[in-house]
Every structure is written in structure tokens, then in C-alpha cells.
Design goal:
By secondary structure, this protein is mainly alpha-helical. Helices cover 44% and strands 6% of the residues. The protein is built from ten helices and five strands. A three-stranded antiparallel beta sheet has the order 1-2-3, covered by helices on one side.
Amino acid sequence: MPRSESGDTPNVERELRRVFRKPRPGLRRDHARLPKEESPRRPTLTAERYDALLAKAGQVGAGFELLLVLAHETAHRVGAIRMLRWSDVDLDGKRLRWRSEDDNIGLEHETPLTDAVVGLLTRHRGRQKAIGDSWVCCSPNDPARPISRHLARDWWQRGAVLAKLPKGQRFGHRSLRRQFATEMKHTPLKDLAHLGGWKSPQTLLLCYQRPDEATQRVALAGRRKLTANGIS
């Protein structure tokens, strides 16, 4: 078999070039993908803007308030929220089950619910008179189907207009996830990732949490001294 100038056979030389070629952006040398940081121009929803959205929810659609509150209180993707069934809801135990088949990262897990969500779900189930595998966020036109992603998007856009969210800043459902991640940054990363449905704490850090001056001032105020005997 012919050899190259380096002394290797063509097949071996090609493999060496493949392994040691300059990696593409976003890839390790072993080609494992790293999460990319989202554009810093993508905003985080503030508490004031969320309250403005919530105040206008009744003018948007019958199911928008429930969808909005669930997104705010659980930080989960709207795609996973709209696929919730009543059999996934444990009102007595105050928890939700998130099915792997309905999550785009395939993460099956359960998360606790706040009292606000429990109260809203209780009222919603009473009006809907639904149990079992019925959809929590059912279509207004067909209760046998969940709301579509298109309707969820349209509701958000209408709510954003009514709440007078700034235009051109790409406010969307993910801004609620950034709000949750930033407001809860005092929570241990493993627990926070589980609460919000993030499979990797690294993704949470790179793409969702935002620095804020108030947290930094608290950290500075709590700084301790390093002495020869350790932290004091």
C-alpha cells in the first residue's frame, strides 16, 4: 500500500487529520456539543412586566391565564406545559409530573407546586369538570385536544400588546424561564435545574441566568476574610 511523505498509509493519515483538525465553534475536540449562550439582547421578563401580562390575561383568551401562571411558576417550556394531563397533576401532594415523551430533552421528573398554582388548577379543574388523561390546557374549540403551539404563541403576542411590552426586544415565553432562573439563583444549581426542567446546570448558567447588581452587593456584604486558619 502506498505511503504518504509522513510515512503513514492514506487511511491512517486521513484519520489523523480528522482527529486533530481545528474543531468547529461550539464543539469540543471530541465533537461533544456545548450549549451556546443565547444572544444577550434576548430579555428577561421583570416582575412588573409579568404582573402587567397577568392583569391582561382575561382579555386574551380563556386559557391564557393558566398557561401564563404555569410558565411563570414552573419555568417549564410551553411545549411541555400544554401537553400536561390531569393524571399528571397531584393537587393533594402539590406536585406535577413531566413526561419524557412530552419534553424536548426527554427528562421525566416531578416538581413541587406553589400554592398559587394549586389554587388556580383547582378552580380550573372545577370549571372544566375533567379528570384522568384529559388535557389540562385543552383547545377552546376541541377539549379532546391540547392547545396548539400556534395558539399559545398568538395568546402571548396579544398579551404582550395589551401589556405594552417593549417591541422589537424578542420578549417571549423563554423570558419567563430567564426570570425564574435569575430570581432563583440563590438555589443550589442541581435543585434549580430540576425545578425548571433543565437537563444540565451548564445550560442554565450559560443561557438563562443573568447577573444583577443587587445579588452582587449582597455577596460583597457577606464576604469573609481568608486567614492562616481558614475562612473567618
